[in-house]
Amino acid sequence: MNITWHCLPFDSLTLMQWHDVLALRIDVFVVEQNCPYPEIDGKDPKSLHVFGESDGRIVAVARIVKPGISYPEVAIGRVATAMEYRSKGLGIELMDYCLQQIEVHFGNVPVRISAQSYLKQFYLNFGFAPTGKEYLEDGIPHLEMLKPAAK
């Protein structure tokens, strides 16, 4: 599978890229997970948008939120992969690319996420550890996880 990865600030996205990023997020988080919530939360204009394209189609997305917006630390959120591209290692590539881009843009810093609880092991593999904060978000169990800065 040939994926081209991008990391762009909001104001560098084309209208079509923004449309496709938002469409994938809504497909996964609102439609597939049957979870009506306000997808537009005001953080996107202040974030870096990571996405992978295959044959001109955006198939994986995430956003990197600057410190002080969601958490005191840099955060990764809205991590999603198109259904037909799952179980092919694309999520691993996406997270690796996000962490590389955080290093490029922010340096060696801690990173916080709000993970759906069933993905705990996935994020443990990247060095994230549970903070002990667990909660329901839109009826879905979540846990907060932190990846400390490398020593």
What report would you give on this structure?
This protein has helices spanning 15-32, 90-106, 120-124, and strands at 4-9, 47-54, 57-65, 74-81, 111-116, 129-137, 140-147. The protein is α+β, with helices and mostly antiparallel strands. It has a domain at 4-107: Aminopeptidase, CATH 3.40.630.30. Strands 1-2-3-4-5-7-6 form a seven-stranded mixed β-sheet, sandwiched between helices. β2 (47-54) and β3 (57-65) form a beta hairpin. It is globular. The termini are far apart. The model has no long low-confidence stretch (mean pLDDT 94).
Short description:
26% of the residues lie in helices and 36% in strands.
Helical stretch count?
Answer: 3
The CATH homologous superfamily name of the domain at 4-107 equals: Gcn5-related N-acetyltransferase (GNAT)
List the secondary-structure elements in sequence, H or E. Answer: EHEEEHEHEE
Q: Give the strand order of the largest sheet, numbering strands 1, 2, ... along the chain.
A: 1-2-3-4-5-7-6
* Overall CATH architecture of the domain at 4-107: 3-Layer(aba) Sandwich
Structural class, please?
A: alpha+beta
Q: Hey, roughly how much beta strand do the residues contain?
A: 35-45%
Radius of gyration based on Cα positions: 15 Å
**Range of helix content:** 25-40%
Low-confidence stretches: none
State the end-to-end distance: 34 Å
Total beta strands: 7
Sheet with the most strands, sense and barrel status = 7 strands, mixed
Spatial shape: globular
In the CATH hierarchy, the third-tier topology of the domain at 4-107 is known as: Aminopeptidase
Oligomer: single chain
The CATH class of the domain at 4-107 is: Alpha Beta
